[in-house]
Structures are given as C-alpha cells and as structure tokens.
Structure of Enoyl-CoA hydratase domain-containing protein 3, mitochondrial:
Amino acid sequence: MLGTLQSKLTEDLDKLRVIILTANGPVFSAGHDLKELTSKEGREYHMKVFQLCSEVMSMVQDLPVPVIAEVSGLATAAGCQLVASCDIAVASDKARFATPGVSVGLFCSTPAVAVGRSVPRKVAMEMLFTGHPISAQEALQHGLVSKVVPEEELKDQTMSIARRICETSRSVVALGKATFYAQMNLERQEAYRLTSKVMVENLSLGDGQEGIKAFIEKRKPTWSHGNKTVH
Amino acid sequence: MLGTLQSKLTEDLDKLRVIILTANGPVFSAGHDLKELTSKEGREYHMKVFQLCSEVMSMVQDLPVPVIAEVSGLATAAGCQLVASCDIAVASDKARFATPGVSVGLFCSTPAVAVGRSVPRKVAMEMLFTGHPISAQEALQHGLVSKVVPEEELKDQTMSIARRICETSRSVVALGKATFYAQMNLERQEAYRLTSKVMVENLSLGDGQEGIKAFIEKRKPTWSHGNKTVH
Amino acid sequence: MLGTLQSKLTEDLDKLRVIILTANGPVFSAGHDLKELTSKEGREYHMKVFQLCSEVMSMVQDLPVPVIAEVSGLATAAGCQLVASCDIAVASDKARFATPGVSVGLFCSTPAVAVGRSVPRKVAMEMLFTGHPISAQEALQHGLVSKVVPEEELKDQTMSIARRICETSRSVVALGKATFYAQMNLERQEAYRLTSKVMVENLSLGDGQEGIKAFIEKRKPTWSHGNKTVH
C-alpha cells in the first residue's frame, strides 16, 4: 500500500495540478497492517516498513503540487499521520481521528511527528496516551484539519478547493509550497531573507508578471505554468 | 513547596503509572511567594528559587509516566506554568488562567517559556502584557488545556483518563513519552529517523509483541510493563 | 508607506508606552502596491521593497513597547502579515484576513513567514493556496488575532488593553517583551536558563522591588519606568 502510494504520487506528476487523497468505505486509513509487525517478520523488515512510511509522509510535503486529504471516516495511527502530513485537509462532520497504538503496545511515535506538529502538545499527548479518538470539530479547533463540512458536501467542497487551485499558476504554486516548508524551519530573520529573495524570483517569472499585468488591466491572467523568467 | 513537589514527584516513581496534580480550595496555584522575592532575600537566593522552579517544570516532562493537571480554580504565574508544563490538563469550566506578574513589576518570563509553547503567540502576549485571566473555554480553544468539564465531573473525568493509561503498558508509555519530547525538538526528517528506530525498538519489546498478538487473537493483552526484548 | 511606518514607529519612541496600528476606511491594509512590482521597476528595486517590508515587520517585534493591531476591515497580503507580526491583535467581528497573492501570480511567501508562525499549518496553506479570506472568528480560533469584538466596541476595547498596559512599568514590559521573543527561539532548557537569569535581573530593578513592596503593603505601586537597579 505504501509502495503503491509512493509510485502513484509521482506518476504523471507533470500533468497534475493538485492531488486529493480519499478512501472508499467508512475508514480513511487505519495505518499499518499489524500482522506485518510481528516478531516473525524480523527487525530488518520492520525498519524498512517505517522508513518507507516516513518517506511517503515526507514526500507529500515535498511534491510541487498541493495535496488535499478528503476524510469521510476514521483515520487512525499512520492514517491519522497521513492526514496530518497533507497540505490541506477537509473532513466530513462524521470523521474521527485517533492515535491508538498504545492499546496494542505500539506507541504511535512516527504518527506523533506529524500530529505533534499539527495540534497543541496537550491535545497530542492525550490522543497518544489514551488512544481515544477526537471528533472532526475538535480536529478543526486544534488545527489537524482546515475545514469541516457536512458529509454530503464533502466531495463538492474538496473539489471546489481543488478547482480554485487549478485557476492559479502551477509554477507559482510550486515555488510557494516549497518555500513555505523551507522557511518554517528557519529562524524569523533568516526566513525573511529567504522569502524576500523568493518574492523577487517570483516577480521575474513570466506568470508573476502576467498575473500583475492582468490585475492592473482588469482581465483574467493567461498562465504559462512554466519557469521562464522575464527581464 | 517546590522542593516538596520535586521529591514527591520522584518518590516511589517505580510503583506509579500516572501522576495527577491537583489542589484543595479555590486556587490551583498562585505561583511564587512574593515575600521570598524581596531584595532582602538577595540575588543568590532568587537565582536558586528560579533554578529549582525550572527544574521542577522540566522534570514533569522528563518523568517516565504521564502527568495530568486537574485544575478546578485559578492557576496564575508559576501555577499557570505548571499547568502548561503537564502532559495533559483537565480543567473545570470554572477554572481560570493568568500570568499577572507584570502588575507587581515582575514580568512572568519563566512562565512564558511554558505558556508560549502552549498557546498562540498573540494570546500569550495579551496574557503577559495585561495580566488578565482567560477562561477554561479559552484555555481549551488555545491549547493550554486538553479538556474542559463541568466542575462536578472534574475528578471522575480526570480519573477516567488516568485509568485508561493504567490499562496500557508502562514501558511502552515511558518510551512513547520520552520519544515525543525528543522528536519535537528536531527537524522533520531527523524526527522521522529517530521515531522509525524507536518504532522498531518498541516492536522488539515483550509488551510490543504481546499487544499485537493479543489484538490478532482478539483477547486482552497481559503486560509485563518491563523492558525485556524478544527476538 | 513602509518608509513612513518605519520612521513613525521609532519617532518619539521614548515617550510612548504602547502603539496601536489602525486604519481609516473599510480596508486595514491591502499590502504592496502591485504597480511597484512590475518588471519595469526592476529587480533591484523589488529587492529593496521586500527587504524594507521585512525590516518593518521584524521591527514591530523588536520595539520595547507592545504593538497592538486594531483591525476593522480587510487585511490582505502584507497587510495580513502586519497583523500577524503585531504583539496583540484586536479585530472587529466584520474583519477578514487573506493572503491572495497566488491569484495575481505572486505567492504570499513573505506574509507566510508571519502567518505560518501564527496559525496552524493547514489553515495557513489553505489561505495561501486558495487566497480565500477567513473571518474574524476563524482568525481568533486559529490564533491570528487575540480578541474579536463587535465593530462598535473596537476602539474602546483596544484602548482598554492599551490603558491596562499604561498602568504597568515601562522598563518591566520592555524586558519582558524582548525576553519573550528571545526565549521562543531557544530549546526549552536553554529558554529556562535565559529566563531564570532575567527573573533575577527583573527583581533587581527598582520597579521590580517597588511592585512587590506595594503588593505586600496593599497599595498602588509608583513606577520609575527606568532601568535603575537596587541592592
């Protein structure tokens, strides 16, 4: 599953503008297959599984297009980690989120990397120590998802965000996404040094100049979606 | 008081599974005794007081068992810092939280370490600059506490979380808690490197394998609570 | 505008106790003038604009007095960044906040430094990728502002916070503000080392001792607002 996700996320990437991760049925994802994690599979196999999992989670943020989680059911353990790793997450009002590994003696330490960077520490710890699920509303309140909508509007509302992204320039979005994650790891002054340079670079992109020109001329911009610069 | 807290928190630690910090009366804790902080006590004494205080606050997060704050009244200054330093905090709907040091000319700079890492920066600054208390609901909204319950349910609800933790493996919880705080200080890729290793280590624990086996066999796990590994 | 802001923010700074940034009309600030950012102005000019902008935003946090944003209308792009950069932000219930640069092909990368440090990552990304505004209530829920009040109470409520700050000691507030931002960049133990020293320093200030004395004697303190120390 992780291998499939990894190859599907990069397949035809050049033709994509936005990726929506969703699921069929009542569960978004329940994380790892516990049978794969018994001692008979061996230590080296386990290491491979968790390394691959971490690669996939990191890849989501490193892709040049926005990745949206569309969550209608239960997202637990690495499934909750996947939601936390996406750029945007839209949840049905019936969705729930949990890190229940502690119940089976396997603390959700890898999910905690993503969840701990999404919600306040106390909320993360209560989820991790008790395994209890939080509701979609609590997930919104604490920042794990960015929007909660009625179950029946989930697909439409997610698609509406995706369509909005498709109206923008691919290269501008790619530059913006990469810069966002890069600057968040820096101290404020360094973050401003990096982003000031990026703003100037963005302005020298064909699409940067076309967008501003169109705005001044009160017309729709015509994007090239490319990285050509103008002088 | 800080000295007592420090020795009590480590006394009989081997027999404990979870610690609840609570108070009798209408005040959870009002922080330092201001009479100890007058100039006649002297600079060296003051330094000792704040070093001890910081040690106690840090110790809460370094203990191998979860520490829950059960807050029914007012928590101010170092008392608010103590709530912010706990792993989990359950508050009565009548609880209030403040960092009012600025009113007596002593800015809550040490409390700000814990409070500033719990709530959004603007909320922290408004609390620190004005000294005004926030309500339990605001504390929940901003991440200072993880749950707010009616006053009369406070003990039961806190105990219910504690009991839930007692159903899990002590060694798994200890590993999970230590790893959580360690990885939160790391950059994402390093955090995944550390936690991937910890997941494999967790799986090699007797309790890691017992938990998964019990899950597959649809029975309750029998924890050893120890650090024995299996092969 | 940025130049004016920069010089006004430091003019007569010694006589100020608190700064309120507000606007006339329905827009708090819409950020950069796009005409200044066309290719005919040139790369070097653009670099100057963004460097100046970053300096002004950083300066807000480096000033020795609290800076409050009073927001009644729309705050977009660098205007939203300015709100995010203030110490405290009070918003009218009709205020809205957006980072819509992506629509004109210029991703809000510099605003993202301040906004990404104020709201959860998913909320920031949805704002940045779609350009859609969030409401005052959402801004409060996610930590971009610290208070939302009815439009007609905006000036009074902001002034009430400002007045509260004027009742405290200038030198204590200056020490507290500088220390807050310094310790937030440090790892927890280092943060406690720094702030413990600052608490002792604060206690040796005349105003530190006067505040505590007044509290014990149940009277109003008489602040010197200076940096004189006592022994």
Q: What stands out?
A: The longest strand of chain B covers residues 67-71. Chain B touches chain A through 60 residues (CB under 8 Å). Chain B has a mean pLDDT of 96.
